[in-house]
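Ligand-bound model needed. uridine-diphosphate-N-acetylglucosamine.
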Amino acid sequence: MKSAIVLAAGKGTRMKSQLGKVMHCVADKPMIGHIVTALKQAGVSRIVVIVGHDAQSVKAYLGDEVSYALQEPQLGTGHAVMQAQELADLGGDTIVLNGDGPCIQKETIEQAFAANETHALTVLSAVLDQGLHYGRIVRDEQGHVKKIVEAKDCTPSELEIKEINTGLFVFKNKELFAGLKEIRNDNAQKEYYLTDLVEIFNRNGWSTNAMIVKDHEETMGVNDRLDLAKAEAWMRKHINERHMREGVTLIDPDHTYIGADVTIKADTIIYPNVVIQGNTNIGSHVQILPNSFLRDAIIGDDVVIDSSKIVDSQVDAHTTVGPMSHLRGHTHIHEHCRIGNFVEFKNSDFGEGSKCAHLTYIGDSDFGKQINVGCGVVTVNYDGKHKFRTTVKDGAFIGSNCNLIAPVTIGENALLAAGSTITDSVADGDMGIARNRQMNKEGLGTKYKQK
Ligand code: UD1
Ligand code: CA
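Prediction:
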């Protein structure tokens, strides 16, 4: 059985933030969320998250996907793991990872468990040009891991060591909880260091092991906003490469921002400066032109999106959107539609084959199929206090510059004369016209010009 303990109680002082460190987002997803996803993908069945600072937001975000142990006060990483007592009597292996290492991948977690099969402890280490603030891996003459020394406790020669502790360990559960009892806080930070377990295990004759990770950036810890930007860049590259391998064209992957949970089918082309977030699902053969923003959007096959914003909305196959359209608030545009320049839709349904090509606002409306909406049409859905719905049935033709004062229903194949302000419903097949007749004044144009 595989268990995990994720350390997420620390304050993250260097983030200079009100938000708990592990709730900061990388690729549009809280760091702790990335870690839990990777653990689940690696088949870890029990996950205990150690919470402390900003425990509330961590719990609200992860919900009952995991269980929690409160660490209060926070006396170090070893003390944090002690709080996961609920795992103490379980067998199997437990992985311990830092909540501030968002880039860890499923494959590495699997390799770490495999590496620990014949050992009681495996620490994942990395070899860096400079050890920086990381704990140093001290090996004996035979190359065996002797202990980990925190940078603040290192002798000058230990500081020279380039092999560092990534903060990720796998333990045999039984030895882990036995070893924790021996941790003391006699060090520079007066903390209970998890890293002391290496020496404790060796002393007890429990087999210890270090596995050097392939890509040390994958195990980077985020301690401040500079690290956060580094993690963001790593994750962006990683996510974009995954989509490209799956058959998506990114014209400029360095300037394409795709969230961790977005799905995109093959043969879709994404242009630079596109941001795609949340639970967005995109079909195949879609073209997303520059400067588009999508969040929680569902996009069908063969859709073209040009410099537009789509939030909480669905666009079905063979539809074109934009340039400069804004679809929001649970709007659903069906197949073969055309949504054009400077058009806004909110909380509306727009039926198959309907067109709305220019300068229009459609809010709280239900439009049927094969409707043509002229330029500059406005559904007047709000009287300052209440919102009302507009209904337009199949085949209707809404002339340019009409106002539809909701609630109002326009019947099948009905026609609205351009420039009408429609306050009453129009029956199937009828025409609604609501404007004054034109009057022409002879010669008044010339006279005006001469003045
Ligand atoms: C830790 C390791 C160090 C390693 C580095 C890798 C120890 C003593 N040091 O140092 O060897 O190179 O990670 O990034 O383990 N946390 C708690 N409760 C606490 C203290 C920390 O939950 O009482 C959590 C933090 O929220 C954080 C993680 O543990 O997610 C790591 O803590 P942090 O203070 O960042 O440790 P480092 O100094 O980076
Ligand atoms: Ca850290």
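The radius of gyration is 30 Å.
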